[in-house]
Amino acid sequence: MNTNFQEHRIDRGQGSIYVRDYSGTGPAYVLMHGFPDNLHIYDDLVPHLVAGGRRVVVFDFLGFGASDKPAGARYSFEQQLGDLHAVVESLGLGKIVPVGHDSSGPAAVNYAIEHPEHVDSICLLNAFYAESPTAKYPELIELFATTNLKALTQAILRSPEQFAWVLNFQRSKFQEHLTEDQKAYYSKFLGPIIDGNFRNQPSSGPAFAQMTSQLFEELAKNTKRINKMWALDIPVKLIWGETDPYLNYGIAKHLQSLLKRPSLHVLPAGHWLQIDIPEQVAAVMLGL
């Protein structure tokens, strides 16, 4: 499979973001990551999309992965939306398919609301957007999202041992309903991506802490935009791993009810379905 890509760095004022661009045709899939990880969560999915002939762009939000992590930077959902727009503009992508996983759901949906001329359709993979009756957030995220616990969470971030313990607890919870093969691959592939995000210096800790602290505010803000989401007259594919204990099937059903042209695809996978079953996720995205 052709997995050659061009690398770009795009200036965002307070630092530059790292982008990989795989050549192909059609509206480019622009793949976005979530709170604790980076673009490498798509390493197994990208070859299948490229083999399908499509252009694929994947990038790290500012503060994550190979993007800059400048001291004192301010991170927000608004900034991530700006990162996406900067990628589209800098690469001259025209119409895209924003693909949101986990906490990049808001960037995918809000980009379509604010820049409809740039969006062909949307894919959401076990993501969130607005407040949802069945939503349950991972304990790690809930902890960091509870703003009156900031002194505690900052102390945890300053202690690699304590943070590692919390990460390991969360990892075991995410794996509870995976198959044995999926658990083994999770440990071998995803574990090092998340660990590296926080252990390598400069760390993604500040971006993670700032983003999670804004979670509930963002959900409330987007809940007020539900009419604008309903007004989107484009296809939205909801591609969901059915054993995700947190961003569960109920969230997918709720989102489906708020969209004009949704299609819901439930697959035998967990939260990181693009890692568990990349071939099946690609087939749904490509409409095979």
Q: Order the strands across the largest sheet as they lie in space.
A: 1-2-4-3-5-6-7-8
Percent in strands: 15-25%
The helix/strand class is alpha/beta
Q: Write down the overall geometry.
A: globular
Number of strands: 8
Span between termini: 18 Å
Radius of gyration: 18 Å
Task: Compute the number of helices.
Answer: 13
Q: What is the CATH superfamily label of the domain at 6-135 and 218-286?
A: Alpha/Beta hydrolase fold, catalytic domain
CATH class of the domain at 6-135 and 218-286: Alpha Beta
Unreliable sequence segments: none
Helix content: 40-55%
Spell out the helices and strands N to C: EEEHEHEHEHHHHHHHEHEHH
CATH fold title of the domain at 6-135 and 218-286: Rossmann fold
Supply the CATH architecture of the domain at 6-135 and 218-286.
Answer: 3-Layer(aba) Sandwich
Biggest sheet details: 8 strands, mixed
Mean pLDDT equals 95
Keywords: Hydrolase
InterPro entries: AB_hydrolase_1, AB_hydrolase_fold, AB_hydrolase_sf, Epox_hydrolase-like
GO molecular function, one term: monoacylglycerol lipase activity
Organism: Cohnella luojiensis
